[in-house]
Amino acid sequence: MVILEMHEKQQLKQDVNMETQLDPLKDDLPLMANTSCMLVKHYVLDLDVDFKRNVIEGSIVLFFETGSQYRKASSTGKESCQSQFDETCKMRASEPCHIPMINVSICSSKTEYNDFAVTGKEEEATSDENSNHSNNEQASGISSSKDCCDIENHGNKDFLLVLDCCDLSVLKVEEVDVAAVSGIEKFTRSAKLTGVSKELENLRNQIVHELVTLPADRWKEQLYYFTHCSQAPGCGELLFSTGTWSLEIRKSGIQTPADFPHAIRIWYKTKPEGRSVTWTTDQSGRPCVYTMGSPINNRALFPCQEPPIALSTWQASVRTAAGFVVLMSGENSAEPVQLQEGILSWYYYVSMPMPASTFTIAVGCWQEVKQKSFKQAAAIETNIECSLPSCQTDSRWHEEICGHVEYPCRFQNPAARLQAVIPYRVFAPCCLMESCEEHLLQLIPQCLSAAYATLGTHPFSRLDVLIVPSNFSSLGMASVLSGGSHLCGTRLCHEIAHAWFGLAIGARDWTEEWISEGFATFLEDIFWARAQQQLSHDEIKGQQELKALLRWRRLRDEVQNSEEELQVLRPKKESTGELSESGASVVKYGLKAEKIFMQVHYLKGYFLLRSLARTIGEVSYLASLRKFVVKFHGQLVLSQDFLSMLLEDIPKQKKSGLTVESIFQNWLDTSGIPKPLLEEGETWKECQLVQQVSGEVTKWIQANRRIRKSSKKKMKLDEVVFQQ
């Protein structure tokens, strides 16, 4: 549960002035980053995990591009962006800007490369544990402050870069001298790397621009230079201050985003109580830490731009004590490199731009689960019947043009398009190794193949499955291992579905969670049906109807016992997807404590998609889903993007009253049970499996009542037996 502490004496000032009003007295989560001015394109993290202090510390280098709003402003950009700075200033509640007096040294490390891995360790940042540069526990971080934008140079204000940040101790911020990197001349239009200060600043920004805009076929070269640029020395400390929800950075005398340093390094450390990661013990009692799907996402793990529009790539080197395994969202299967006795380094990278919220990390004493023999593995692989989706077998498939920003896309890779089962690994604590091998390993290739047969090309090149402790609120699977293959399979199918809906295709507005969770819940049934090749059509139908009944009861109970405002799938309605002029926004009800326990986005989203599939016909519906994936992978969407495309494929349905507007009204913009779902009736009552289970439940309820009646007469005699 997330609790936002408020100081009673501090009141929200009345001069907050932005298009999206941020009211900290409510339960909305503020996204503070001014992405319209500057946009992060790549992160390089260099971190140490310390289990003795429950701290992750090190540095992060951010590479920027000038934001879209400022680029569009052209000649009037200065005035346009200045108004955004004014707006930003009115949003902040922070300390006056200052130069931190901390002795932090930068040095070039000796490096070895494994998939471009940086294995050298920079000197550790040192600081006073009682430094006052960490986040202040203020009421909101959104009230006005005249100190955050100093007036200099005849009244002009410095540009203020705002990053999302919470529960972090920021030690130092500096500009990175990318011009000092050997061989970087190829990214400059001028061969000269020396000159006056202003020219040198422009040159550094030009280098970063050329680097972040390299074409997709040069991604390995790009990653190589990102690595070397991240190790370049600093060339000047930057002013910074921290608020409850943000980190604000400026450079004295710099008034526009175009002139602001486009490569900066931030030295920081997390706090043990930080809300982005959980420090706990695994099922074997050994220490571990992992990102947990927090409502505040990753801003307490590293300073970042949280708005979904800030699509970026990243790479990370993580060091920890020998005996620990580091798993991370990344395209490579990292292997540890020993730096010194007792210290290992792990390196991961991502070349597909995604929101910072999708960054995940888990560090623990996990062990990889493997088949005991080659024959067993071969038997599993040969048991998979792979059928190509109709869109994959179409000769015109390769002619599709991706609509996303350029990156090395698997949808354009002929070999990837034919890969039904991508490489996968399973990690677990030692006490669960046997259960994972018995229930999980054999299911993964079946579920991956079923997903491929349904949606086509896997968006990502590999899959890691980690069995985390039962207190993990979002993605944990340990609790379902004891349920055998069925529970494991359905849960696994749900998480595999997120590769398409949630990662490859994301919601442009976080309040539309149903785009991720509703689709994954619907698709888990489709995937699992195809994975169970031994079952008949009637048996599959029975399973799905039983699950529909259970979901219906869960939705009914939740609607009866929750606030109406939390039952709406599109709470911002017509304003969904809108940003303020600076790019800041809010996640409506994002900090509402009970919201993280609710499943309404899963359930109402599932029933909407189920209703559409029944109306259109499953075959036509799944064909439309594949078409949607091909068109929108690598992009952010709103509800209307999917609904409009779906209805375009079935124009006859519009005549019967099925429109985007009617779906909004009946399903997404209202609380309670959707009207079409009530009118549909409980069709599952006619299902034979449902009747069988209902009869079994009734039998045991009656038996329990008889036992209770008899136990009242012999309470003392039966008490011990009952406890046993």
TrEMBL record:
Query: What SUPFAM superfamilies has UniProt attached to this entry?
Result: Leukotriene A4 hydrolase N-terminal domain, Metalloproteases ('zincins'), catalytic domain
Q: Which Pfam families match?
A: Peptidase_M1
What are its GO cellular component terms? nucleolus
Q: Which GO terms describe its molecular function?
A: metalloaminopeptidase activity; zinc ion binding
| Polar residues composition-biased segments | 128-143
Report the residue ranges that make up the Peptidase M1 membrane alanine aminopeptidase domain in this protein.
Answer: 492-667
Q: Which UniProt keywords apply?
A: Aminopeptidase, Hydrolase, Protease
Region annotation Disordered: where it falls in the sequence = 121-143
Source superkingdom: Eukaryota
This protein is called what?
A: Aminopeptidase O
This protein's species is: Lamprotornis superbus
| Biological classification of the source | Eukaryota, Metazoa, Chordata, Craniata, Vertebrata
